[in-house]
Amino acid sequence: MSPRQANFSPYVPRPATLVRKERLSDMVSLFAFEPDDGRSLAHKPGQFIMLSMYGVGEAPFSISSPPRRQSVEFEIAVRNIGTVTNALHELEVGQKVGVRGPHGTFFPVQVFMGKDTLFVAGGLGYIPLRSLLHYQLRHRDEFGRIIVLVGTRNPQERIFTDQIAELAARSDVEVYETVDVPDAGWKGNVGVITTLLPQIRSLQPDNTYVAMVGPPVMYKFVIADCQKMGIPAGNIYVSLERKMKCGLGKCGHCQINGVSACIDGPVFKYTEIQTLKEAV
Amino acid sequence: MTAYTVYMEQLGPLLAEWSRRMGVFVPVQIQEALYDFVPWSEHEEIAWDYDVAYNSIKRHFFPPRENLIRFDAAACTATPVFEAPDQLLFGVHPYDLKAVNQLDQIMEGGAPDQNYMRRREKTVIFALQPQRVAATAFWGSMGSGHVDIGFDLFWTKISPNAFYVEVGSPRGEELLLACGDLPEATLAEREAARRERTRILAEARGQGLKYPWEETPRLLARNWDSKLWRHKARRCLSCGSCVLVCPTCYCFEVREEMDVDMKGGTRFREWDGCMLPSFALVAGDHNFRGQALERYRHRYFRKGKYIYDKIGELGCVGCGRCVRACTAGIANPMAVYNELWEAEQHES
Ligand SMILES: Cc1cc2nc3c(=O)[nH]c(=O)nc-3n(C[C@H](O)[C@H](O)[C@H](O)COP(=O)(O)OP(=O)(O)OC[C@H]3O[C@@H](n4cnc5c(N)ncnc54)[C@H](O)[C@@H]3O)c2cc1C
Ligand code: SF4
Ligand code: SF4
Ligand code: FES
After folding, report:
1. What's the rounded Cα separation, in Å, for the pair A31 and A20?
2. Chain B environment of A251 (Cβ under 8 Å)
3. In terms of residue numbers, what domain contains A55?
4. What digits encode the pLDDT tens for the residues B294-329?
5. In this structure, are A89 and A116 located in the same domain?
6. Which of residues 68-87 of A touch B (CB under 8 A)?
7. Are residues B29 and B170 in the same domain?
8. Which site among A36, A51, A54 would you substitute to test the B interface, given the most B Cβ atoms closer than 10 Å to its Cβ?
9. pLDDT in tens, A173-200
10. Distance CA B247, CA B99 (A)
11. Are residues B328 and B303 in the same domain?
12. How large is the average pLDDT for residues B271-297?
């Protein structure tokens, strides 16, 4: 519906059908949907949708799939943690949800072209970054080095493990992974995500753009280390998640000081939020 | 601008005519020293000299609870719900109108909020020059004593039985002349209205900020780490009264309810407020403003800086409602801003 239509309301979702569901970890599953009206979301990497489980509620989720021309399908990956996410995890293929969006700002793909990209994915942060990452992989020639840092609390919570293993096997992608707390079977790095930064070989700071999403505690430390490595503040992009109720810049819940994370974000260039006390 | 003179005895028939066309709301005294807008009837005595209405008029365009969509839970289809009755708010003070104009800008900006806008379009506003200043008010010092836009008519009482009425819109003029022609105001009457405005503004300026209101955003920018926040917030009950009574606050929560047959349901919004502890609480128990200090400070920054950075006006119009509403006695923006200002004067 377009705003010109008489009965338009930005609060009305459109129906979409679950076409695929895949378990990623104990708590996280991937959900692929197709909008019933056959129109693509036409999203950009980093944007999110408001998803309605009718009778339960609505909640924001990052779009994890890259923009695609050939198909209207899109993917989200969701941790089962509360009322809306519970209901979503109960959903079976063929059943429907409501979708609004895409909402928010996005990673400026053009800016990243020809440059090296450093992905910093803490925990569920891999979900939104995957959209940009897969876009870059599809257009591999247009981008420089692709360096992916993945940090998870413990091995059980790792998500997209097969895909990450495939990435690690590629010669044109550099993958570094760590867990905060290992278990008996874990053979990789142990430590917080910042411990991976010094392992990157011959990083060219001026030519490197950073795309970073993770838990709230992560940003300050990673940003500080990136800057210490010489990456300009203007090359750092972060996605900041807050409580969101409307996705339209109206309800006030997502405010970071005077900025609305739902329309001014979630993706910010670090220099835009550097001076905001409540940002990172 | 066209202006007419209206005599008290002409009002009865006009009000009767208007209320045949739409819901008419007027300020009346509801208790000793307490006024509020109520639906007009001929038995109601309009409190022309009310100082401040207990409730702000935002509830007429932004009700405490408002349906947004109706949905069919099985089919996952939804349709918008719009309720927008024709209404006339008669007797709105300039500071409250300024608050409405601010809501208009915010709700119309970006993705226009159709529910708000439809209600607003159906609402006629007759502004009224205040005759008294509430003890808790400080609008005179907040740049809220005067508004140029947003009203359909602007009424100023210029004698015990006459009003000087400025036309703000064709819709307003049509309603004013609904019972027949009226004499255009004379220059002397215009002058009387101007004098009345000057008198009340002078009185209102007597209580307020100790510095020009335009300085507030910069004052706050220098005072993020002031001790005042902790000191005052210690007494905050996190009850949210200060934001619920405020004419410029518009934050809301979205919830939904199923019908009894469990097939369909309604999603609605409800007033919410940044002073309530759960406002920025997300799943996994992370709270982006978990401490009372952070919530308390946020409200003053929002009123004194964030809204200003967006639209060039303060987000507080100085009505003083929050001052009365706060049992802890800490919600007064004027007192907080003045205290910050004075502390700086002593430092330098
Ligand atoms: C831009 C953005 C992108 C996100 N992307 C993802 C994602 O890709 N995968 C994922 O698993 N989670 C994501 N989240 C977090 C996800 O929205 C919450 O986990 C979800 O809202 C929890 O809802 P619930 O009803 O299950 O939980 P409850 O705790 O029962 O929450 C009730 C309501 O509170 C609000 N709420 C609670 N937690 C959050 C939160 N963290 N963020 C915003 N609103 C919240 C929601 O409106 C929700 O309906 C994202 C959040 C934002 C803001
Ligand atoms: S903050 Fe208080 S004085 Fe200012 S507009 Fe709101 S209720 Fe009125
Ligand atoms: S400042 Fe006063 S009115 Fe506002 S939440 Fe605190 S105690 Fe309640
Ligand atoms: S989610 Fe409502 S203002 Fe951002």
Report:
1. 6
2. 251-254, 269, 272
3. 14-103
4. 999 999 999 999 999 999 999 999 999 999 999 999
5. no
6. 81-82, 85
7. yes
8. A54
9. 999 999 999 999 999 999 999 999 999 9
10. 6
11. yes
12. 91
What b-and-e string marks burial along B113-149, b requiring 16 or more CB atoms within 10 Å of the CB? bbbbbbbbebbbbbbbbbbebbebbbbbbbbbbebee
Among B76, B113, B89, B67, smallest CA distance to B266 is for: B67
Span B12-35, pLDDT tens digits: 999 999 999 999 999 999 999 899
Average pLDDT for A117-128: 97
Tokens of B44: 């109601």
- What is the position in ligand 3's atom list of the atom closest to the CA of B241? 3
A contacts of B80 (beta carbons < 8 Å): 7-9, 11-12
The token pair that represents B142 in the structure block: 């907040």
Which residue, among B106, B254, B258, B259, would best test binding to A if mutated, counting the most A CBs under 10 Å from its CB? Answer: B254
pLDDT per position as a tens digit, B182-227: 999 999 999 999 999 999 999 998 889 999 999 999 999 999 999 9
**Interface contact flag, B76 A12, Cβ < 8 Å:** no
Counting one residue from chain A and one from chain B, the pairs whose CB atoms sit within 8 A come to 127
Task: Please report where in the chains the tokens 């002349």 appear, as a residue.
Answer: B177
Does residue B175 surpass a pLDDT of 70?
yes
Domain-embedded: residue B107: yes
